Every structure is written in structure tokens, then in C-alpha cells.
Amino acid sequence: MLNERRFFLSLMPYLLLFIAGTVDAVGFLHLKDGVFASFMSGNSTHMGMMLSYHDCPQAAIYIAILGIFIIGSMSGELIALSGRRFYRGVVMASVSVVLIFAIIMESYLPFLAINFILCYGMGMQNIALRLTIEKSIPLTYATGYLVNIGRLLALAIVGQGDRKRLMQYLCLWGSLISGAMNGGFIMQTIPQYSLFPALALTSFIAVTLFYIEYTHRSTPIDTEL
């Protein structure tokens, strides 16, 4: 069972990147004005552009998105600090609750407000991979993945590359892209149920994490991803 725990925890970055890509695509396509629910680098760039054009109302939207994402991460970290062993499951269950709330409110609120809700959930989701604040793994950091792919390819050319590490970064980037493709496909086929696949996956992850931690109560926590 310990090997199953390690396997699932090592799989989590790919699952969470897939979810983040899906939610980002759904939010972006719904809103159609360049606001991402989890890709904060893109939102930061847009905020800077809007400020340079003195478009304060549009810049305020991006500022709000960035602030809500930070609050989501802060909320997830508070859960992690208080939940200890079961923090990953509690964080993912909380993300599921946020998605349920977004689905319910979709009929009553403009989608910009729904994107704010999704952004809060995606900020919180990052903490499911938290070991310590110094060893956290940020999701949707596509630039970092691509830079590392380039570095590892350069090392491979001179005979020093780590193929396993290279494949890891390729798969991390691919998980994000696959999630975005999934979100785009959902929006073309069943837009009225656009958030249900992400909800199903976060719920599955939460249940699995609770089960894994419950069956490994005697093992140290936070020793692996």
C-alpha cells in the first residue's frame, strides 16, 4: 500500500495540471476577454498592459483576479497548517465545494463573478502539492516547464541529460495542454456542463487522498509529494 500511496502522490501534479488547464479553458472561453482562472502569468501580463493603456476598469479585473488567487492559496495553506495528515484530501474536497458553488451560481451570476470563484479554487488547489512553503510546486507554470525542457535538452546534447527528468517536464507541460484541449472540447460539445468533469476529478482525488492517508496512519507525513 505504501507504493500505491507514493504512486498516487507522484501522479497528482499531472492530474491537477489537467484540472487547471480544463478550468482555465472553460473560464477563458466563457468570458472571452482574456481572463484566466489559474494562469496568473497571463493575467499579470494583461494587467500590466491595461495599466499602460490607462484602462483602469479592465486592470481592476485582473488585480481582483490576482488578489483572489492569492487568497485561495492562503486559504489552502491555512487548511494545510491545521489539517496535517489529511490536508491534501481536505484541500481537494474544499476545491470540489468551490466548483459545486460555481456550478450552482452559474445561473445567477455573470461569468466574470464565476471566474472569480474558479480562481479562488485554483489558488487553493496549488496547496495540495505543498510540502512546505519552501518546497511547494506551483501549477500552470508553463514557462518554467519549457525552460527546464530546454535546459535538459541542452544537457542531453552534451551527454549529461537526465531522460527521466526531461520526460517528467514534458508530461507536466503536456498535462496542462491536454487539460486545455479537454476544456475546449467540453465548451464545443456540452458547455452547460462545462465544470462537471473538473468537479468529478477533484472529488475523485479528494476521496482517494482520504483513503490513502487513512490506510497509512502509521507512516510519516509529507515525506513525498
Structural commentary:
With 225 residues, the chain is mainly alpha-helical. It has one domain (1-216): Up-down Bundle (Growth Hormone, Chain: A), CATH 1.20.1250. It is built from eight helices and no strands. α4 (87-105) runs antiparallel to α5. It is globular, with a radius of gyration of 18 Å. The relative contact order is 0.19. The model has no long low-confidence stretch (mean pLDDT 86). It comes from Photobacterium piscicola. This is YoaK family protein.
Which fold does the CATH topology refer to? Growth Hormone, Chain: A
Decide which structural class fits the backbone: mainly alpha
- Which architecture does the CATH hierarchy give at level 2? Up-down Bundle
Strand percentage: under 5%
- How would the global form be characterised? globular
- Overall average residue pLDDT: 86
CATH class descriptor: Mainly Alpha
Give the number of helices: 8
**Uncertain runs with pLDDT below 50, 5 residues or more?**
none
Q: Looking at the chains present, what oligomeric state does this protein adopt? A: single chain
Question: Could you tell me the number of beta strands?
Answer: 0
Radius of gyration: 18 Å
End-to-end distance: 16 Å
> What is the H-and-E element order?
HHHHHHHH
Number of discrete domains: 1
Helix content: over 70%
InterPro entries: DUF1275
Organism: Photobacterium piscicola
Protein name: YoaK family protein
Pfam families: DUF1275
